[in-house]
Amino acid sequence: MELLPRSPAEFGSARYWDRFFRQCGQRPFEWYGAFPELCPVLHKYVRPRDKVLVVGCGNSELSEQMYDMGMCQDIVNIDVSDTVIRQMRERSASTRPKMSYLLMDMLQMDFPDAHFQVVLDKGTLDALLTNEEEATLAKVDQMFAEISRVLQVGGRYLCVSLAQAHVLKKAVEYFSQEGWVVRVHQVASRGDKQQFVLPVFVYVMTKFRKTPGSAAQILEICPEEQDRPMRVESAEGLVAAVKDRQHYALLCSQISKIPCREQISLDLCDKESRKPRYTLHVVDSPSVKPSRDNHFAIFIIPQGRETEWLFGTEEGRRQLAASAGFRRLLTVALHREQLYEGMAGIQAELSGKVMELAPPGLPAQQQVPFLSVGGDIGVRAVRHCGSSPLSGEFVVEDVKGDGTCYFRRLIFLQNRNVVQSEARLLASTPVPGQKKRRKDKKKPSLTEPPGAIDKSYLCCEHHKAMVAGLCLLGGPDTLPGELAVLVVGLGGGSLPLFVHDYFSQARVAVVEIDPSMLEVATRWFGFSQGDRMQVHVSDGLDYVAKLAAEAPAQYDAVMFDVDSKDLTVGMSCPPPAFVEKPFLQKVKTILKPEGVFVLNLVCRDARLKESVLSTLRAVFPLLYARRIHGEVNEILFCQAGPVGRHGPAELGARARALEGALRQPGRPWDSSYVLADMLQAVLVL
């Protein structure tokens, strides 16, 4: 039986609808939005004594169910199909005496002005507005004008719709310009047997008198039936908010049917601020054998640990899901701008929403576990928020790591998933974020001194590799007496501090373009200047160029650890200008003949990376690379002088000898930091 029209234009034809309902017979046909789903919204806007008009009623049971449930009984139903009007009269004549069915075109209604308190439309606008041609839009304007005419002031036009963008935009713009209040409800689905994947919405347009110079339009959205309305600034904003919910419904439908080959990510936003509150990743492990209790689990990533490899990368999350032993793992990252009431509060907040992301085949009433590291949500205390014209917005925060260690981090918010600088806090530092009485929620004072920094510990693996690269200068007996080192890029200052403290004869010059970073490093990361440590606030490009012209061959080592602010380039460290051949020639000029150039390279673009390596080879004949496990970082050691290539054995021997010299009695040394290990995986390029 063919019920769909041959062309969208037939939706406006009485002849089509007569044929449709003859073929349909007495069987009720609901396009979408069953009464149990619509009832909670209709109850808000339809009162028992209201006079209700249903336009384009068809043979839907909606009017009958409203009548039988006592929601309202003074209901007038109209339709252009004589066939369906006769069917519906026969169906309700003896049982619903106060309800009537009339053959009438909603574009030309016979009712007097202000005759109804409610006009109800279930799919009629969607059927009429099938395109945006001039003739169609004229019909829709006529429909809206007639609805406006027959509604009393204070009356409500309730339109049940799938909310296609052009349909919603037309309705919102028309009625908001008439001074009506427009509110859009998302209808909560009941169960999983839905004819349509897209959610159903109800537009509620409340009529007000249009007055000259009236107040700004009032547009609102209710994401779910129990939520209070949220104000939206424009019709475009309302359409965008609805589109977000449609995309979410499509996503839920997609992952409820098949395992996901790719990890799907989405943000859940705070209802008040509308800022992201949770970031979810759906990770499927089809290779895990199904059992009664391993279908689905939720993993709460402790605050401050979302940047770690295990939680912050696809490969890491895949490994986490496999080791957890669940066929689907939903990882949940917590955002620093939000407050959380412990694991129990997060579980209560997320329980309903995460079940919409459950895998296919999840048994009914299955208990879904919430997991975390150590059973808590971690600790994060924001110590300082700042902004600079060069680095944008940034935060300094203290977080609890794995075990009992606490760390201080610098995060640039334009790339919030990357830790810019990190330092370990000494055990004597008060535990950040320690629970206080509820009334004592003041933020840490920005005038209090920073916690004690463990300067002996290099948190970043790439910093460890960069220091180990100094072995290329020779063993402890052959290192220059006064080691001259230039570091471009200060960050929190951990790298230059370590070189300064452990190479007692080293003179370290640091170039930093952003004066705000010098202030952050000094105030929050224990950095200080002195006779052997000087910071020059300057553009690294200009500083090196000036040195090359005025004071060549003065550094034993030059280290680049500088990030790029241009996120559109496939290389986030360093900026492209720092690896162009003319500039690299200047770097070579300021190095001593046996000196070493150490570069932190972070490049995801394979072609760009090969181009950078080719340029480096053209300037520095000796090129070594040390890849950092689990990270994109690659440390490049470049030499141009009259030294031969070193094999792994020689580098290892140099590293062990140098480490022995650096480990002095009474001087703390991180036992996990073995210089030779850093150089074991060095590749000669």
UniProtKB/TrEMBL annotation:
Name this protein carries in UniProt: eEF1A lysine and N-terminal methyltransferase
Q: What processes does the entry annotate via GO biological process terms?
A: methylation
One GO CC annotation, please?
cytoplasm
Residues spanning the membrane: none
Sequence similarity: Belongs to the methyltransferase superfamily.
Composition bias type Basic residues, residue spans: 434-444
**Listed InterPro entries:** Lys/N-term_MeTrsfase_sf, Methyltranfer_dom, SAM-dependent_MTases_sf
User: What Pfam families does this protein's entry cite?
Assistant: Methyltransf_31, Spermine_synth
List the CDD domains hit by this protein, alphabetically.
Answer: AdoMet_MTases
GO function term, MF aspect, one: methyltransferase activity
Q: Where is this region: Disordered?
A: 429-449
Q: Does the keyword Transferase apply?
A: yes
- Write out the entry's keywords from A to Z: Methyltransferase, Multifunctional enzyme, Transferase
Which parts of the sequence belong to the Methyltransferase domain? Answer: 50-171
